[in-house]
User: Fold SnoaL-like domain-containing protein from Planobispora longispora.
Amino acid sequence: MQQDNEWNEPFTPSAEDLAGVDAWFAEYDALAARGAVEEIADLAVFPLNLATDVPGGFGAVAQWDRAEFVRVMTEVMGGGTAGMEMKSVRTPRFLTPNLVLVETEATVTAEGRRQSMRYADLLVRTEGGWAFQTMVQGGWGHGWPPATRG
Assistant:
């Protein structure tokens, strides 16, 4: 829903706004369960921004085009996440009617091993609906150069 918003007034999402974000993640989760990486890529805006950290205590950033996203996520997701038990609590924070940061606290159990994680996505509203444009999660930066200022 397109709405005008004064710069100095915080945006308060409606139930419809929140339901739209929930529906987007339901679609994403269903695709992830099947390992449908190409279809997941259809839910993104490229170039996709990534922020993570590298061993040694520094942040790292990258931009991926669609081909890079598909290559990496195919390696990461393998045949999908259906064999994993995933529990996620998502907290959307609308910056404007068209920009929402979604913090996720997730617990994944696979092969008897349980791991908790926290990550965030920036979703942007497009003509085709919500799309993710930025992914932020620690621990992905092995082999990435540390970020530098300036």
User: Anything to note?
Assistant: The two ends are 37 Å apart (CA to CA). DSSP finds three helices and six strands in the chain. Residues 50 and 135 are 5 Å apart (CA to CA).
